[in-house]
Design brief:
The complex is a heterodimer. By secondary structure, chain A is α/β, with parallel strands linked by helices. Chain A is built from 7 helices and 10 strands. In chain A, helix 6 links the parallel strand 7 and strand 8. Chain B folds into 4 domains: about 240 residues, no CATH class; about 190 residues, no CATH class; about 220 residues, no CATH class; about 190 residues, no CATH class. The chains are: A alpha/beta, B alpha+beta.
């Protein structure tokens, strides 16, 4: 790896997102747009853990989607590991995601037609240099064991509980050893106890693999486990608070 | 290049197959698979079946030759013809025919003698009776040496009976039976004198065959179709002057015409079913794609490139078609077997080897249907934004209506396949063109009409609700509002149901009205006897005879015999033509006739009829009107100058029109016609055709007695054959119709399924909010009934138009307009779609709302 240690893993400058005003759909004009995100600046260092909190509709998920290259901003720049992702086309962004980014979603987003093991193997299989099938299988098996689901390898998502599904999703997120992990409300669909378990796994793997963690949440307990908490309101950061580590 | 390399990646294969396997188990692929199987089964069953029918018909036509193949010559057939038959493992027989005087009891009459070798006839059977007017029976025997079988007319003319002796040349023969039927006689319409059948070994005894005698030598062959074709092909280049080959395919025009139409009917039915199946494939694939939006977003999220998404789904479709293709071929073969069992004895029982061509066509249809119709919606999946994993609602319209070039190309490919299939199946570019462009145009118009109707319904509903409705939440209201709320989806559904119903109704017309129209041309009272050789001076007496015997006023057509000698001043010889039919036509004499008006079973296809533009009817131009089939065989076109040798004089005129002739009407028709007055100076005889009821057969004996020079030709055998073809084809069309029905139902199922997920969600919310199941049932019923009725109305309209166009333009028959079609369209559409909709969406009302809400 040729990445410089001093270079931030994620650098966001002047990021803004507008969308057409749907309430007034029939007459969309330049003035008739909703501003979802105002000029956002953000710098995240390697190994950092950042929580983005804020009320519904504040633009948290939009920001996450933009930073992960899932959507294109109206203005501003995003450097991911030194690369301006806005200069990449859709496929190049996909390749970059496959190589550097892991995801955990509120609604798990497991492929229903794949078993737990197959779901975890998926990111490796999508990489052109993802190794052999046997290697992918072995790595996926190890990670499932790590989240305590060895026995459930061959179960389909519909046969797993919510907590188990999210653990599979976490194993899937870490299997490609991403530099950066984005988590969107990872405990949003889980009860407190299960949520806690899932979070523990996520932070453990984060530490083991030295991954940078960016998560969006309503959950202040979860947010406080991150090194930094950023609060988003009406598309702008209103407070940046550093809380104690761990 | 990278695109193709990606296809070979092991990972892609693995992922693709795994997803396919899982989707299969989850039942996601069912409709897609069934649609492909139906398309393939339809093409192949019709393919196998027409192979078989063709063979059966050839067999029947073979009966008209008494063989599968007949080599005829005006000289003894050389060894190269006769000896090589054994090399091809063919059975053979010989006949020689000539005219000679026959004497019995002091009376002499001219007879047509036919000497036959053992084995004759190779196809069909002779019929004999122990006495005139006694009941006849099929027989496998032949006259023994020293015996003769005489036709009833000859016996009547000689005043002889079975058991009497007769003298033929130097031979004394005993009349052993009355010959009532020879299979190959009916094909020979103009053999004039009555028949005497003798054994070939007696021929030398008669001493009648001398150098220069006018004898027709015929060598008959029968065997495996392949061997017959090989023999024919090998012999063709070596044919000498005066020799020609006739095969079953050179059958009489009546039979050819019937066969051609039969294949068109079947082809039409099959192609229509394939088209419907393709619509079902497209709709099922669209739903399949829609249900994979999340998966694709996920794959994109984890780094899959757009090409990789394409690869995964392309491979799935290829594997699916490789699986469904052979399955479809097998179903097609089994279905065809079933058909043969159903038709029982109508079809010959020896099974022709399944034609590999049909198998390949079936597999190609599977591939073409999938790549042309399932691929385009699936290709759109590459455009699914990865953002969907975060915000599903914001990107709900992920299936962009914008067609990618690749998808467009795929659709073009599919359309090309259909065009080729139409040409292959119907064997007719015009029919295919009308069918395809008609269906495309109708689909477009259906879309426009559906848009207008749903818009109109919306306006009406708004107005009605504002002014009249007391209770806003009635089931009618709920159902109709549902229909108008999402007008695009409703329009699409009306279109899908409309196309399905239109094709079903169209086929109902083809099956019912068109077949009826055809059979009507061959009604019970269709002419079954021809009388030829009527002389000009006998016209009044013959007419009088018919009127007196209660047979009405018969139409008498003049007939002048002439041989075609030159085209555009260049003399014509049979060597110029490779086609054996063309050779034959040039060698024999034509029957020319004249007419002032075009007969109703004739249509001008090129040029104009002389009656049309000529103001002065007394003065007609010197022109020919030529039948289109013969014009094609001889390479004649409008403006060609044809010269005929009539009674030693040349007669030249210009071809001013080409006619299509409905030969299977069995009226007297002519290949070449002139306007009246042109041929007055040449010797003419007259011909008539009429229907003779069985109980009046004695009238003919009387006719021949009064006018001994007349010859009566019985065409009942040919007519029975044509009737049999119609009967078989009707059954075959019914059978193929079943496939179309299945394809139509599939389209409806696919259309219902296309909105199933949205309905599930909406109804789950409604039920969670307290809506009663009964009300939901009612609203669903109202919605689907209205959808079906709208679609049925449109379908009836377009089916009538298309049916009329096909009847007039392609099949050249009258179209019988049926008001029932509209009733069926409206009610059938409403009730059919209503029921299908309720059944298809029953889980919408039956599934627990919580389960649905959690799942979606």
């Amino acid at each position: 790896m040729s990445e410089s240690v001093n270079q931030p893993i994620l650098l966001v400058e002047g990021l803004g997102k507008n969308v057409a005003n749907h309430a007034n759909r029939e007459h969309v004009s330049a003035d008739d747009e909703l501003v979802i995100l105002h000029d956002i600046d953000l710098c995240i260092q390697r190994g950092d853990s950042v929580a983005i909190v804020g009320p519904s509709g504040s633009g948290k998920s939009t920001l996450l989607g933009l930073m992960a290259g899932l959507d294109v901003p109206t203005r501003g720049t995003i450097f991911l590991d030194g690369k301006n992702i806005l200069q990449l086309n859709e496929d190049e962004r996909a390749a970059l995601r496959g190589e550097k980014i892991g995801f955990v979603f509120q609604s798990f987003q497991l492929l229903p037609s794949f078993t737990a093991l197959e779901n975890v193997m998926l990111p490796l299989e999508l990489q052109d240099n993802g190794g052999t099938y046997a290697q992918a299988r072995e790595q996926a098996g190890q990670l499932l064991a790590r989240v305590g689901l060895s026995e459930r390898e061959h179960h389909y998502p519909s046969q797993l509980s919510g907590g188990e599904q999210q653990r599979v999703a976490i194993a899937r997120a870490f299997v490609s050893k991403p530099s950066l992990l984005f988590a969107d409300e990872p405990t949003g669909n889980l009860d407190t106890h299960t949520g806690q378990q899932v979070i523990d796994f996520m932070f453990e793997l984060n530490r083991e693999q030295d991954t940078t963690l960016v998560l969006v949440t309503h959950d202040h307990v979860l947010a406080n486990r991150c090194a930094r908490v950023l609060e988003l309101q009406d598309g702008q950061f209103c407070r940046a608070a550093k809380v104690e580590q761990g | 290049m990278a695109f193709y390399q990606g296809l070979l990646s092991q990972n892609v294969w693995r992922l693709s197959l795994r997803m396919l396997g899982r989707d299969w188990r989850a039942g996601e692929l069912r409709i897609l698979l069934i649609a492909i199987i139906i398309a393939v089964a339809c093409v192949t069953s019709v393919g196998f079946f027409t192979d078989r029918i063709q063979q059966a018909l050839n067999y029947q036509s073979g009966e008209l030759l008494g063989a599968d193949l007949r080599v005829a010559a005006d000289h003894p057939l050389p060894a190269r013809v006769t000896a090589s038959a054994k090399n091809y493992d063919l059975r053979s027989a010989e006949t020689r025919s000539f005219r000679s005087m026959v004497q019995a009891g002091g009376v002499s009459r001219l007879a047509e003698i036919k000497a036959v070798s053992p084995g004759y006839p190779l196809r069909g059977a002779l019929k004999t009776a122990p006495a005139r007017f006694a009941k006849d029976n099929m027989t496998q025997d032949l006259p023994q040496p020293g015996e003769a079988w005489a036709g009833p007319q000859l016996l009547q003319q000689l005043g002889a009976r079975v058991g009497d002796q007769l003298q033929l040349g130097h031979a004394q023969l005993r009349i052993a039976a009355v010959l009532t039927y020879e299979p190959d006689r009916s094909g020979d319409m103009f053999s004039i004198a009555p028949r005497l059948l003798i054994n070939l070994s007696d021929l030398s005894v008669t001493g009648l065959i001398q150098e220069g005698s006018h004898v027709h030598y015929r060598f008959l062959l029968a065997g495996e179709p392949g061997a017959v074709a090989d023999y024919r092909q090998a012999l063709m280049p070596h044919l000498q002057r005066g020799e020609n080959i006739e095969g079953a395919e050179d059958a009489r025009p009546e039979v050819r015409s019937a066969m051609q139409r039969a294949q068109q009917f079947l082809g039409l039915a099959a192609v229509v079913a394939v088209m419907l199946a393709c619509v079902a494939i497209a709709m099922a694939a669209r739903r399949y794609a829609q249900r994979h939006l999340d998966t694709c977003a996920m794959l994109r999220c984890f780094g899959a490139s757009q090409n990789r998404i394409n690869h995964i789904f392309l491979l799935q479709l290829i594997v699916l078609s490789l699986f469904a293709g052979p399955l479809g071929v097998l179903s097609g073969f089994l279905a065809q077997e079933g058909l043969v069992v159903l038709l029982g004895q109508l079809i010959i029982t020896d099974l022709p080897a399944p034609s590999w061509m049909t198998v390949w066509v079936g597999l190609l249809v599977a591939m073409g249907g999938v790549l042309g119709f399932a691929l385009p919606p699936v290709l759109q999946l590459r455009d699914v934004p990865a953002l969907r994993v975060l915000r599903r609602v914001a990107v709900q319209s992920a299936m962009s209506p914008r067609l990618q070039p690749a998808a467009l190309l795929a659709y073009l490919f599919g359309l090309m396949m259909l065009v080729l299939l139409v040409i292959y199946q119907a064997g007719d570019v015009v029919l295919g063109g009308i069918l395809l462009s008609g269906l495309l145009l109708a689909t477009l118009l259906l879309w426009a009409a559906a848009t207008f109707l749903t818009w109109g319904l919306n306006c009406f509903l708004q107005y009605f609700l504002r002014n009249f409705s007391q209770s806003k939440a009635s089931a009618w209201h709920l159902g109709l509002v549902n229909l108008t709320r999402n007008r695009h989806v409703s329009t699409l559904q009306v279109m899908a149901f409309g196309v399905g119903l239109m094709v079903l109704l169209l086929l109902t017309i083809v099956r019912g009205d068109l077949l009826q129209g055809w059979a009507k041309g061959l009604s019970e009272n269709a002419p079954n006897r021809f009388v030829i050789n009527i002389q000009s001076q006998q016209l009044t007496d013959v007419r009088h005879f018919f009127t007196q015997n209660g047979m009405g006023d018969v139409e008498l057509f003049p007939m002048v015999r002439g041989r075609l000698t030159a085209i555009n001043g260049v003399s014509v010889s049979s060597q110029q033509y490779a086609d054996s039919r063309a050779k034959g036509l040039v060698e024999r004499e034509f029957n020319l006739s004249w007419a002032e008006k075009l007969q109703i079973d004739n249509h001008i296809v090129q040029g104009r009829w002389w009656g049309e533009s000529s103001g002065d009817k007394k003065r007609f131009p010197r022109e020919f009107s030529v039948e289109e089939g013969i014009a094609k065989t001889l390479g004649l076109k409008l403006g060609d100058r044809l010269t005929y040798l009539i009674s030693g004089e040349s007669f030249t005129a210009t071809v001013s029109s080409l006619r299509s002739v409905q030969w299977d009407s069995f009226r007297a028709n002519f290949f070449v016609l002139t306007p009246p007055g042109m041929l007055d100076n040449y010797p003419a005889s007259y011909i008539t055709s009429f229907f003779l009821p069985a109980e009046k057969s004695g009238v003919l004996d009387e006719l021949v007695h009064v006018f001994p020079n007349l010859t009566v030709i019985d065409i009942t055998a040919i007519m029975d054959q044509v009737r049999l073809i119609i009967e078989r084809v009707s059954m075959a069309v019914e059978f193929v119709f079943l496939f179309t029905l299945a394809a139509g139902l599939l389209v409806m199922t696919a259309a219902i399924q296309s909105t199933l997920d949205v309905r599930l969600h909406e109804n789950a919310v409604l039920r969670a909010l307290g809506a009663r199941r009964r009300r939901l049932w009612q609203s669903l019923a109202v919605e689907f009934f209205s959808l079906g009725a709208l679609a049925g109305l449109l379908a009836a309209f377009f089916a009538s138009v298309l049916g009329a166009v096909i009847a007039y333009r392609v099949l050249e028959m009258d179209y019988l307009f049926s008001p029932w079609l509209w009733v069926w369209g409206l009610l059938g559409g409403g009730v059919g779609v209503g029921l299908a909709g309720i059944i298809g969406t029953r889980q919408v009302v039956n599934s627990p709302p919580l389960a649905v809400l959690q799942k979606l």
